[in-house]
Amino acid sequence: MSSAGATTTAARGANLEFGIGGDLRGLESAPELGFAGYLRAIQDAARALDPLARVDFLEGCSTPENCAIALDLGMPYRQFTDFYMVGGGPGQPDALERLRQNLDRAAASGTVTALNMQVWGTRTEPSLDRLADFYHAAYALAKPYAIGVFTETHINRFTYDPRRLLAVHDRLLADSSGAYGLQVGADFSHYVHQLGNSHGSNWDDLRSGALRMDPFDPGNIISTRIIAAGLVGYGHLRCAVPNDLAPGKGSIQYPLADPAGEPGADPGRRQLRFHGAWDESRTAAWRELYRQAFAHQITHPERGIARFSTEFIEVEDEYRMDAYGNLHQNLSALCWAQRLKRELLATASKAAHAN
Q1: Quick check: helix, strand or coil at residue 54?
Q2: Most buried by CB count within 10 Å: which residue of 69, 108, 255, 304?
């Protein structure tokens, strides 16, 4: 293998990081250990599951003092998520005002490099014109801060239909003469849970084949138009499975790791209220989408760092509905992602040596 090939192989993976976020209750450290002790407890808990595990970053934003502590421990705050409504609404500021506030928070942290926007919308609202105007203004606003702006795939947002996401992306490319489009914050749980789900807003098109989202379908829109196009640079790791659950029954969260494998858990924890008995094979579609996203990032070392944080949560009624621990699932998701990265890098290294 040439020295150039060796350099490329060594560079692979440096632009892919995994962090911790979501519900971490249960990791409180002794008060006298302070915030630094809490962060060490997170790292120790991850290594208890996998000695090779590391927390590359934290999802969120804290005080400048805590951000400095996190940075010193090698677990800097790097990104956080918020809700944005173009034009504002009851109790909601205009999206640009919210963005300005969060850019200032990010700058004050000294370590945050990206913001993730959940932008309200449907297939038709806001209009393409309003969304394009918002993104042009948003990117201009963020430019002096040198902070990335990403848009999350999420229920009750315009990105819930990937075709709408791509319509906005294409519009921005046309408006900016190809200089920029959307940067995607991939939370693929919001796509996977739609597969086979007759209660979802995209069901008619999924059923007819007009919308193809199954990651094992080579022509699916997520793999071919979002991942392969290099749009993903931010992500959340919360597992979901294809299901036909109505809203309010935990449709968008499913344990990635065996709930009965959690310390102190009994076998009965495998029985989930609405999903039935936990079955690892049901997680295959979710795992496949992230495998594709990680593999694409690894094979393009010229790209900037893509960061994925865990996000098992307990919010509203689409997420945790059972007795399993979000903390254990978040740690398990972190370890799973890092193991997969090591496997992908080993495969890439073998291929490079073969050539």
Answers
A1: coil
A2: 255
- Distance from the Cα of residue 192 to its chain's centroid: 13
Residue (of 179, 333, 156) closest to 254 by Cα position: 333
What pLDDT was estimated at residue 45? 95
Nearest to 294 by CA among 306, 303, 284: 306
Q: What is the pLDDT of residue 3?
A: 42
Residues belonging to the chain: 355
CB proximity list for 330: less than 8 A, separation 6 or greater: 20, 21, 22, 23, 24, 310, 311, 312
Q: In whole angstroms, what is the distance from residue 159 CA to residue 166 CA?
A: 9
- Map tokens 């990104």 to a residue: 79
Residue ranges of the chain with pLDDT lower than 70? 1-10
Of 84, 104, 80, nearest to 96 by C-alpha is: 84
Q: How many CB atoms sit inside 10 A of residue 183's CB?
A: 21
Q: What is the pLDDT of residues 254-276, one digit of tens each?
A: 999 999 999 889 999 999 999 99
3-state SS of the chain: helix, strand, coil percent to 5? 45, 15, 40
The token pair that represents 175 in the structure block: 């408006």
Q: Coil, strand, or helix at residue 167?
A: helix
Q: Are 41 and 75 in contact (CB under 8 A)?
A: no
Q: Is 6 helix (H, G, I), strand (E, B) or coil?
A: helix
